[in-house]
Amino acid sequence: MNKLSPLQTERLKYQPKLPATLADGINNVTLYEGSPTDSVRDAEQIKELFKNTYGKPVVTFNSGTGTAPEPRNAGVILSGGQAPGGHNVIAGLYDALKKSNSENKLYGFLGGPSGIIDGKYIEFTAELIDRYRNTGGFDIIGSGRTKLETGDQFKKALAQCQKLGITGIVIIGGDDSNTNAAMLAEWMTANNTGVQVIGCPKTIDGDLKNDRIEISFGFDTATKTYGELIGNIQRDANSAKKYWHFIKIMGRSASHVALEAALQTQPNITLISEEVAEKKMSLEQIVNYIVNIVDKRSEQGKNFGTIIVPEGLIEFIPEMKTLISNLNEIMPELESDPDYANATSTGEQFNVVINRLSDENVPVFESLPASIKAQLLMDRDDHGNVQVSRIETEKLLIEMVQTKLEAMNSQGLYKGKFSAQSHFFGYEGRCAFPSNFDADYCYSLGYNAAALIKSGLTGYISSVKNLTKPAQEWEAGGVPLTMMMNVERRHGQDKPVIQKALVELNGPVFRQLEANREDWAMNDRYVFPGAIQYFGPAEVCDLTTQTLALEQAKSLINV
Q: 309, 398 in Cβ contact below 8 A?
């Protein structure tokens, strides 16, 4: 076994807090059912696709008394990208099952969803679980991005469940993974297999949430980790006073991470993808917005600052979205074009591309720096599409801002100095030691998932609410996965998917940023959050994200 750091040694001893309703074990809870539910959109289509699991009620748990049930086995899968706290979901699930009946067994499928298809698994033991409590990462069983969505896959999954005597599967993942959990639950129910399926909300991106799922796990730790790094950079910027730092932050489909990091650190400029799309801002408009602030600060003798850029920004810029779509269409043709394949320089390749692009996209492509053009053409995903997350948007903005400032300088319109540094914070936050909040929340989600299984439920996602209160006051229960779904066009087909939660521009979190933007742009209101604290006063160690605090404050007002 690897040598443990002093912090990990102490974190292994931490006992996560549980909601009071779960504290006496899952045998001592009673189930309360609400009214039947409908999907957030496209109800008739979703109902038709999920005939056996649609319309279930939201459920909540209350304290009660009970007896030990017969032994049963469960399986767990980590799916998709890592998020701090995944190990604690498994620990909570394991502890709940063992406390319910010491003969219960928990199996972990290795390498993500493919593990249950290929029959790769381990049986968890107390010794193994104890080595991973309150630690970051998904390395206890690994993860993967295989999608569970075909009848053949479901049959193979069932075969593994029958082999191991598993009657409950917990899938820990994001919106796509929980969509697959819903599909698997429907198939298992339709075929009278007796196997239940429960999901858990995981993603640092923060886009898996609604009125019942207040936050996805990992968001708290990741944003605090990024907040520390940004704060360190801002301290450096404020000390050296000579660099503009362009900081790209993970979050392709939504800007929740960038928004939360901005509220924690108060940088000079924060770009929000959803705002760019709503206002139909062009790349030139974004560059001019940045240049205007850089220019105004230079007039005050401030040739430095910080800019936060969401990872997925480029895909939200209307003309860039159109260009990327056009490139995705023509790439199969380009790959079979000898002129493109035999080009001896990138310039020759660019010319071939320009000849195939639609007229409206040619000037957009030509306006981009050569490095960005190359990235648009080089990196393709498994479906042949541009891998937007790999485009160095922060460097694109630096180059375009610098070009604009140089032109202004030659005309005597800008007299400041502009030097820039680029950063991308992504993997730094995905496997960090979970904060006390995520350690508690994840353990509760796993414990609660065991309660949902014991209650005979399937097609639900584990829900723990009231999260701005002390953990003892958290409310445990479950939400039907179909309630969160809608139909979207994916790769030319209509697909049922869990609806992503984007930043609400009329919501309290974005409005908090909007109200302070001008002040933060010109005045150095930098906040330095520092490292995540695990030991000490609750007001420091159990501090919630500003996103959750602002959203819950609004929720309480609306009650």
A: no
Give the burial class of 402: count Cβ atoms within 10 A of its Cβ; 0-12 exposed, 13-18 middle, 19 or more buried: middle
Q: Are 434 and 442 in contact (CB under 8 A)?
A: yes
Instruction: Give the distance from CA 218 to its chain's centroid.
Output: 8
Continuous segment of H or E residues that includes residue 249? strand 244-249
Nearest to 50 by CA among 37, 59, 62: 37
Instruction: Quote the pLDDT of residue 56.
Output: 97
How wide is the angle at C-alpha 206 spanned by C-alphas 234 and 60, nearest 5°?
135
CA 217 to chain CA centroid, Å, is 9
Residues labelled as active-site residues: 205
| Percent of the chain scoring above 90 in pLDDT | 86
Sheet of 475-480, strand order: 29-36, 57-63, 475-480, 460-465, 196-201, 166-173, 73-78, 105-109, 121-123
Do domains 6-219+436-490 and 244-418+508-528 share one topology? The answer is yes
Beta bridge pairs of residue 465: 475
CATH number of the domain at 244-418+508-528, out of 3.20.20.105, 3.40.50.460, 3.10.300.10, 3.40.50.2020?
Answer: 3.40.50.460
Structure tokens at 150: 């075909």
Average of per-residue pLDDT across 331-359:
90
The predicted-structure confidence for 36-95, as pLDDT tens digits, reads as follows 999 999 999 999 999 999 999 999 999 988 888 999 999 999 999 999 999 999 999 999
**d(Cα 95, Cα 98) in Å, to the nearest integer?**
5
Beta bridge partners of 475: 465
CA dist 381 and 272 (Å) reads 25
Q: Are 244 and 294 in contact (CB under 8 A)?
A: yes
Please, are residues 294 and 305 in contact by the beta-carbon 8 Å criterion? yes
Closest CA to 482 of 52, 79, 76: 52
Query: Tell me, what DSSP letter sits at residue 472?
Result: G
Rounded to an integer, what distance in angstroms lies between the CA atom of residue 296 and that of residue 293? 5
The CATH architecture of the domain made up of 6-219+436-490 is 3-Layer(aba) Sandwich (3.40)
Query: CB of 186 within 8 A of CB of 480?
Result: no
DSSP string, 308-337: EEETTHHHHSHHHHHHHHHHHHHHHHHHT-
Residue 355: how many CB atoms within 10 A of its CB?
A: 12
Higher pLDDT, 337 or 224: 224
